[in-house]
Amino acid sequence: MKKVLIITYYWPPSGGSQVLRWLKFSKYLPGFGWEPIIYTPENAEPQETDTSLMKEIPDKITVIKRPIWEPYRFYRILDKKRKDERISTAFISEKKSNIIIDKASNFIRSNFFIPDARKFWIKPSFRFLKKYIKNNTVDLIVSSGPPHSMHIIAFLLKRNLNTPWIADFRDPWTNIDYYKNLLLTYWADKKHHRLEKKVLTTADYILAIGPTMNEEFIKAGAKRVKTLTNGYDDYDLPADKSKYDRKFSITHVGSIPKSRNAEILWKALSDLIKTQKGFGDNLQINLIGKVDYSVTDSLNKYSLINFTTQHKYIPHLQALERMSMSQVLLLLINNTQNAKGILTNKFFEYLSAKRPILAIGPSSGDIANILASTKAGKIFEFNDLDNIRENILSYYHLYLMNKLEINSVNIDKYSRFNITKELVKTFQEVIN
Question: Would the pTM of this model clear 0.90, i.e. be above it?
Answer without folding.
Answer: yes
